[in-house]
Amino acid sequence: MGMEILIVDDEVEFAETFAERLELRGFTAHTANSGEEALRIVEECAAKVMVLDLKMPGMDGLEVLRRVKKAHPLVQVIILSGHGSEIDEAYGRSLGAFAWLRKPADFGDILEAVKRAEKLVTSGALQ
Amino acid sequence: MKANELAFFGKIAAGVTHELKNVLAIINESNGLMADVLGMQKDAPSAYREKFDRSIKKIEEQVRRGTEITSRFNRFAHSMDYPLADSDLNTIVTQTVALAQRFAALQNVELKGAVCNCPIMLFINAFRVQMALTRAIEAFIRCMSGSGSILMTVREGPGSAGLDFYFEGESCGKVNSGALEEFTEWQDFEELASILDIHYQWLPSDGSFALFFSGKV
Questions:
Q1: Do B187 and B97 lie in a common domain?
Q2: Which of B34, B52, B78 lies at the terminal end of a domain, its last residue?
Q3: Which residues on chain B are in Cβ contact (under 8 Å) with A83?
Q4: Of the candidates B25, B36, B63, which has its C-beta nearest A21's C-beta?
Q5: Is B18 in contact with A82 (Cβ distance < 8 A)?
Q6: Residue A7 forms part of a structural domain
Q7: Are B18 and A55 an interchain contact pair (Cβ–Cβ within 8 Å)?
Q8: Of A40, B4, B18, B57, which residue is least crowded by CB atoms under 10 Å?
Q9: Which chain A residue shows the shortest CA-CA distance from B35?
Q10: Residues B100 and B74 in one domain
Q11: Per the structure, how many domains does chain A have?
Q12: Residues B72 and B10 placed together within one structural domain of the fold
């Protein structure tokens, strides 16, 4: 079983297709389509990397990021969104976002960020 | 349009471009998934592999093109957020060139921009500056009547900022203040330049046109 990743995006088609591509590369991908669902799943699975959209109905991505980093500081969160200003990015990074990518991003760039996050988590440097 | 009407239009336009990015992202990932699956079967014989590969490449290129267009339009829409704000002249010029290039290309005129390495911050209405520059470009294109090129070069001096227009090609001699006067685009430019406190002059030495911006931060 590959490393677990949680994809959080209210665009169901995007989350599912993106998860399929990660699974083809050996990851175990979970999906959540709202901030609330993401917080529930992150408690249930062993995902240490999260790919998170910003604008979602209900709880937005920055609030999810804040709560996840508070409850699970080891989880590395990659923001992937078509929304978000430079101010949002600065705030997100101050909350501990690992990387900030804009949709539609090159899959290679996302994969590279995921692998860096995985390396950081598995290296033990954060313990 | 009033400032609040412009801001409203900008907000709606920015929202639409964000949604378009989501659409492009889904197309991009679905296309990527097809490429992944084809890649896994690369040793299996298929009469249509080349056609599939070509189509995947085309979709990839069009997604990239769509992303560039929506990103540019998104930045343009956000330029309506505030009537006055700190704005980088380099960004304004890059944005204007990108958005006006199609108007120029349709008239066989090439439009190019050259910017400075360092930000040149102006406290200015970026939307109106883009409109002024675009109206001037449209007037120049009309003068050039179907051929040539326009180069816009950002210039920075101590305490000042400027933008120079250089004209090349057989019809560049037709671009002059007398010829421009008859175009409504030029009249719009002059009115906006006056409102924005942008000064301008023709440089007889090389026929170029120079703009001088106040409000450098």
A1: yes
A2: B78
A3: 18
A4: B36
A5: yes
A6: yes
A7: yes
A8: B4
A9: A21
A10: no
A11: 2
A12: yes
pTM of structure: 0.78
Q: How far apart are CA A55 and CA A83, in angstroms?
A: 7
Alpha-carbon distance of A121 to B215, in angstroms, equals 49
- From first to last of its 217 residues, what are the pLDDT tens digits of chain B? 677 888 888 888 888 998 899 999 999 999 999 999 999 888 887 778 889 999 999 999 999 999 999 988 888 888 888 888 889 999 999 999 998 998 899 888 999 999 998 999 999 999 999 999 999 999 999 888 778 899 999 998 777 899 999 998 877 777 877 888 889 999 999 999 999 999 999 988 888 999 999 876 6
Residue A88 C-alpha, separation from nearest chain B C-alpha, in angstroms: 15
Q: Are residues B130 and B62 in the same domain?
A: no
Using the 3D structure, point to which of B52, B78, B104 is the last residue of a domain.
B78
Mutate to test the interface with A, among B29, B73, B79, B87 (most CBs of A within 10 A): B29
Radius of gyration of chain B (CA): 21
Measure the CA–CA gap between A14 and A8, rounded to whole angstroms: 10
User: Are residue B139 and residue B155 in the same domain, yes or no?
Assistant: yes
- Domain extent for B108: 85-213
**What ipTM describes this predicted complex?**
0.85
